[in-house]
Structures are given as structure tokens and as C-alpha cells.
Design brief:
It contains 4 helices and 5 strands, in the order ααβββαββα. The chain is mainly α. The chain folds into 2 domains: 83 residues; 72 residues, no CATH class. A hairpin with a 3-residue loop joins strand 1 and strand 2. It is rod-shaped. It binds zinc ion. The site of zinc ion has 8 residues, from helix 3.
């Protein structure tokens, strides 16, 4: 995956920067030791300030490295979701996969929540094929599981059957 390569390169760059900084800090420490032997308080202060600035920079690099790692993981998850999003098949009231997908199953997935979040949001189905999304409240039946619509003709038919 090209994104993995880019992120790995970025992480390696941070490690290199970190190593370069560590090297600069080591030199700064030596400089501090060297200037300590001289009777020059101004130079000592400058070296001390310089070291503080380097240490602060090292903290920033570590923060950036952590942020980069976090973004990389977020990007990986988003790519993963998009990959699965593209495979969804739309039914009347829900989405599903033609084949179960690792980590998601086959579905059904909520239409609204999936569209809103950009990745499949599963909904529980009861034994009658009725599903209900606890997040957005939408509900429906799996294809072929819906009870017959309540129409005048259907009611008349039902009434006739029961007599
Ligand atoms: Zn929903």
C-alpha cells in the first residue's frame, strides 16, 4: 500500500531527525562542559539557552512523531472502511455484502448510518427478518421478509380466511 510506504518514510524521517537532535544535544553538552572551564558567563548562558532550545525541539519532534503515528493509523482505518464501503450492495432499506467481509460480516447495514459515517454500520436482525438501528432508529425488513402490506384487499382476504 503506497500510504504505508509514505507513513513509514515519514516515521523514519522523524527517527532520523530525532537521532540528529540527539547528536546536536550531545555536542551541546560537550560545549557546555567546555565553556564551563572558561571564565565567560555570557557564553555559558548562551550555551545553556541553546541546550534548552534543543531539548524543547526534541519534545516537539516526539509529539510530531506520535501525531504522525496516530494519523497513520486513522488513515489506515479510513482506507479500510472505504474499501468495504465500495463493496456494499444497496437493498430497499439496508446495505449488505454479497459475501461476508472480515470484521463486518454480511450485513445488513443501516442505510442512514452507513451513508453518514462512510463505513458499514451493522444492525441487529430478529428471527422475523426485522432489523432496527439503535443509533438512528431506522428499521425495516430484510428482502422477502416483510409482512404483507395492510391494504383493503389484504384485510378483506384475511377476514375471509378467518371466517
Ligand atoms: Zn442507523
Amino acid at each position: 500500500m503506497p500510504d504505508l510506504t509514505a507513513a513509514t518514510t515519514a516515521l523514519a524521517l522523524f527517527s532520523t531527525s530525532s537521532a540528529s537532535l540527539k547528536n546536536a544535544i550531545d555536542i551541546g553538552q560537550k560545549l557546555k562542559g567546555w565553556v564551563k572551564g572558561k571564565n565567560d558567563p555570557e557564553a555559558q548562558q548562551m550555551v545553556s539557552d541553546f541546550l534548552s532550545a534543543l531539548l524543547s525541539l526534541q519534545g516537539d519532534v516526539i509529539d510530531l512523531q506520535q501525531e504522525c503515528t496516530r494519523l497513520f493509523e486513522e488513515n489506515r482505518v479510513a482506507k479500510d472502511h472505504l474499501k468495504y464501503r465500495a463493496k456494499l450492495i444497496r437493498r430497499d432499506a439496508y446495505y449488505e455484502f454479497s459475501e461476508p467481509e472480515e470484521g463486518y460480516g454480511k450485513g445488513p447495514f443501516c442505510l442512514q448510518c452507513t451513508d453518514l459515517n462512510g463505513f458499514p454500520i451493522g444492525v441487529p436482525v430478529d428471527r422475523n427478518g426485522h432489523f432496527h438501528c439503535s443509533k438512528c432508529g431506522s428499521s425495516g425488513y430484510l428482502e422477502g421478509k416483510a409482512p404483507p402490506a395492510v391494504t383493503e384487499n389484504n384485510l378483506r382476504e384475511e377476514f375471509r380466511r378467518r371466517r
